[in-house]
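Let us practice reading a record.
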Amino acid sequence: MLPLPPAPLQPHPVEAAPVKAAASQFNNSWTDVYETKVRSCLRKEQQQQQQQQQQQQQQQQQLNGASGLLTPPVSQLIQLWERSGSSGEEPLDVGKLTFAGVCRTCSAPVVPELTVHRIWLSTKPRNATDVSLITQLSVDRLRMLEGQCSNWGSVISAAVHVPLMKGRVVSDMDDLYGQGPEKALEMISEFHTRMEREGRCKLDIVFATSVVTKMVEAGLYPVNAMRNKALQLSQTEIVLLLDADLLPSRPLSDTITKPAHYYQLQKDTARRQIYVLPAFATKYYGNEARDNAFAASRSRDVLKDMSTRGQLRGFHVHHYFIGQGIVDFPRWFKTNDSYSIPYQEGFEPYVLMQRRFVPWYDERFKGYNKNKVVHVLHMHSLGLEFNSCPHGYAVHVPHPEGKTRSATELTGTWDKAYKDSPACRSGACPTSVIPRSRMPPASTAPPPQNVC
């Protein structure tokens, strides 16, 4: 497989001239090397395929999982992200390099082009037993991130998104709509400063924008691309994959970050065990329901009492049972032990697992529908096993329905999700290739003379 060249840099003003010249020379050299070497590289790749089959199988999990591109230190990723501009800026056609070497009939995927503007890192002390909560959200849902930060006493790795049309923010927030991205950046910066002062969490944020040409496209939130950005920013061995509108139970992070609990969790998840957090939701909406969600997230006894009285129920079980219902909520309430949860297609749990076993999210899925279902299907295909988490749970915070669902239907993305989903199930998306925007490279060194 041809190695990917580093993305072209957007130089800092103080070093504009030398960096610009180097970038130009770098891109030209890559074009020349590619044109002259690609055919011989593909031949060599075919000849070595049988000899390296066992090695490729061993490496497949790493290349496919998050750890394959998470080895650079955070400081290096920050420099590359701040200077590289859009994830879509490549000196070569990424589709040819990521797909042609694996499947000669595959076409390059359509994935979002995200421009990363800034990264904020918490200055709070890090611990060896930290567990990162991985989440993503649009800038108008920072209040939900604040709720997570009030409950989670460890690291949160959050990707925050803003759509831009003609360089202006598209948002439901009146004081943000029509402003430049710098206004959103200022808002996020103030929020991060406040969370450093008031929140329990150690909050890391990456802020990214995407360009839309129509208002309806602003509702096609690039959910899986943003999940990948948050996942890449994380640097802990164990992660919790959770959407922004769900609160982790407050005692969970305190329990699993204690050395004895953490090392047992580390041992279990290293054996490809995934721990599923049962997810609950209030039966009604409004401020009272929101208060109930927060109260339930603070105590399992309160959670059980509200469930008994009918104020809470399994998340989405009334209209999509398989998504969370197979966790078996009555059984979870009756035991403090973990039990196996047989996978069924359509399952979309919130999970604790080893970061190195997390597959990248398929970024073709935007807006609403199938984005998490396909990701969990991928986990299952990689041999990961699902078990109930006896130490914690999640509670959905009620909120007004956004424009994502309607935009997904109006643009035809809903139907496309149904079309792409069976293709992934049947193997058209092999486990060694996932449609996604390219991540920042580990090095900015010039390309090698021999690309094979």
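A brief commentary: The chain has two domains: 13-77+87-100, 115-426.
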